[in-house]
Sequence to fold (163 residues):
Amino acid sequence: MKEFIRVVKFTLFSLSAGLIEIGTFTLLNEILHLDYWVSYLIALVLSVVWNFTLNRKYTFKSAANVPIAMLKVALFYAVFTPLSTWLEHFYTIRLGWNEYVATILNMLLNFVTEFLYQRFFVFGKSIDTNAAAAEEGAESAETALAETAEAAETASAAQNKEN
Fold:
C-alpha cells in the first residue's frame, strides 16, 4: 500500500511539473517566439527542479544529501535531455508532428523512467528517512501499541467473563 501511495504522489507531483513545463513552453514558444529547443530546455529545467523538490520531501521522504541527490538527477537529465531533444526534433521536423504531441510523448517517457530512476537509484537507500517519515513512523507505532493494548483488554475482559 505504501508503494501505491508513493506512485500516486509521484504521479500528482509529475502532473503539476507537467503543467509548469507546458505553461513555460507555451509562454516561451508561442508568446516570446524563442527557438523550439530553447523553449523546451528551459521548460524542462523548471519542471525538473519543481518535481525533484516535491518528490524528495513528500513522495520519497528522503533525508539524503541534497547536492548528491540533485547530482544524480542531473546525471539522469544529462542522458535524457539530449535524447528527448533529439526525439522532439525527430517528431516535429522529420515526422512533422505537432510540437505539443511531441512534448507530451517525451513527458510520458520522462515520467516512467524518472520514477524508476529516483525510486531505485537517487532515493533508494534513503526512502522514508526525513522528519515527516519519522513522525509518520512514530504515529504508526503509537497506533499499533494502542490497538495491541485494546486487544489485550478485550481478551482479558472476555476471560474474566468466562471465569
Summary: The two ends are 42 Å apart (CA to CA). The first helix runs from residue 2 to 31. The chain has one domain: 2-129. The CA atoms of residues 33 and 105 lie 22 Å apart.
